[in-house]
Write the structure tokens for this entry.
Amino acid sequence: MPSEEPPRRRVPGPARPSRPRPASGDRASRDRAPGSGADRTPRDRTPRDRTSGDRAPRDRTAGDRTPRDRRAGDRPSRDRTTGERAGADRAARDRASGDGAARPRTPGARGSGARGSAARTPGARTAGARTPGARGSRPAARPAAKRPAPRPARKPRTIRLGSPRPRLRLISFGLTLVMLAFVVRLLQVQAVDASAYAAKADRYRFQEYTLSADRGEITDRNGIALAASVDAYDITADPKLFTPEESKLPDAPEQAAALLAPILGKEPAELAKKLRTPKSRYTLLARKQTPQVWNQIKDLRKVYGQKAQAKGGTGVNLLGGILSEPSSKRVYPNNELAAGILGYVNAEGRGAGGIESQLDPQLAGKDGKVRFTESNGRQVPTAGSQGTPAVPGSDIELTIDRDIQWAAQKAITEQVRKSKADRGYVVVQNTRTGEVLAMANAPGFDPNDLSAANSAAMGNAALQDAYEPGSTAKVISMAAVLEENKADPGTHVTVPNRLHRGDRLFKDDIDHPTWYLTLNGVLAKSSNIGTILATGRLGETQAESNKVLHSYLRKFGLGSPTGLDFPGETPGILAEPGDWSTSQQYTIPFGQGLSVSAMQAASVYSTVANGGVRVEPTLVRGTKGADGRFTPAPAPEESRVVSEKTADTLAKMLESVVEDEEGTGNKAAIPGYRVAGKTGTANRVDPELGRYKGYTASFAGFAPADDPQVTVYCAIQNPTKGSYFGGQICGPIYKKVMEFALKTLHVAPTGNEPARLPVTFEPPTP
């Protein structure tokens, strides 16, 4: 503890008598001892020298330090030596010895006058301490030692604080910016983009799902399903459940993919890639899977779920993230049967070929929607739901007879395989109504498994292929000659082995001596030269003959669409008569230099069989809506091409092709029935080479010849094994298909005898 600083020493003066105290009520004057404030010099006076009343000055402790002491800090006071203390005592005694009756009081003594208390020195540590020899007379006081001058007081250090205003301004500016940003954002959300955010809120709060409409069925004329929709499942997954955090496995996607690949028929790497997308909660693994496939996945998932439970409930089901969505799948119960007509649907369930594409709007129906409130991925039952129900598609009833279609497809497939041909087609048509009873193509495809289909076989070649018909087109030339009254079936036509016309030398399919044929014989023996000679009578000049023949070709439907509006259908190729080349003027009459489709060729014979009236072919009988009501298709357009008389005459002439031993179509004869038909063997234009290569063999006809009911047309492209003549390879197909169709349709033989028109005539003797 720091020592006290000694009081300043005063120079003693002569003792003064004490003054009388003032009367009561007046403030008592204080007797001052020698060396009191009155005797002090200004230098020796300090605030501590002044006393109030008789109070003695207090000894200063560390707590009573003066401002000077505080400025000095904890600086220790000067210690007095023993000699200094003795000198002070002697001075006190000297002052006391000057007056024995009354002892002068030292500065700071309590009260006035002489009291029994001992005189105190300014530096005494305790009040009332007396020096030796204080009683009695006192010696004269010695002058006190001169105290050194005190150090000048140190000015207190002032700590000045910075002004708070700049900081307050900065903070206020920052808060203003923050509040301004909030205000701008609120204005944007509540005013500018209010509708957009409301729409987003509705989208997240309300969930909309599309209700797929059931696709309508496609049936044959008897209601037998040719294309139908069955329940199916889209196999999906939640990739998040295959992450290492959720599955507790580093390779969960790979393990799951290895299990699913054999079931789904997919590559494991493809499935693993889809499962390894952790930022997504949905991925599609496979579309349109059968219920059997989904059942296999469920069984496998159940097994792994049991394994997870066997681990005390801490295991994870490896296939727990595999899910499914109900869907529908288009199936074709008869596989390849009528695939060219039906077409197929794509992965999105939309028609992509055939009737499926042509009538997709009617078949697809109209999807519905359901909208409900969702919370945490679950529907809120109490919030209700709203939406529009799905409208199922209409059922399409075709004119096809499934059984006749099967017979036609079986016959043409076998012959194409046997002849090692590129392809073949068979068309069966009702001669009176124009309804197509069958339209078969070989090779075909299975619309249930498009991955294995040949792209070249996925269309309907009977409507999409354009080729030169050959001799089957001669019936049009004969119809024109008969209708124009330029000849009759018995008209004589002398047919040489070669005929020079224009810049070419024409011949028949075989070398022969000069034939003496009737017009009927020209058709029966399928003579190219005889046909050129007969059609040359249609006009005064070849150009006029060309115009007349062209008009009949157009009336029979060549060079124009058939009216089926089938996707990819070809109108054929028929140039204007003024554009016919020199060779075309003479090749078109026997079926070369123009192109047709199998459907167009069949329609020509149906026109003859229908008494000369052409009825546009039809494939659709009508539609059946969701209410079960059947709506028949619009009636096809009809147009007369030749007179009934001409058509009847042509039927008898065509009958000679099959019945007469001179005819080329004997293999098409059907016992008990009168059959009319015509063979065809034409040079074939190779579409890849752009020139003639190979042959097109064909046969066309109808039965019964005297009461036609059914037309059958057959063509085989580029047969490379065995015969390539139409009568040899297509005649048998015609016979098989016609016999089956007549029995299926319960067409009985007429029992009438054939007309047996003459084929040849006796040349005049020279």
Notes: Confidence is low (pLDDT under 50) at residues 1-11, 13-18, 20-83, 96-137. The radius of gyration is 64 Å. The first strand starts at residue 206 and ends at 211. The chain is about 30% helix and 20% strand.
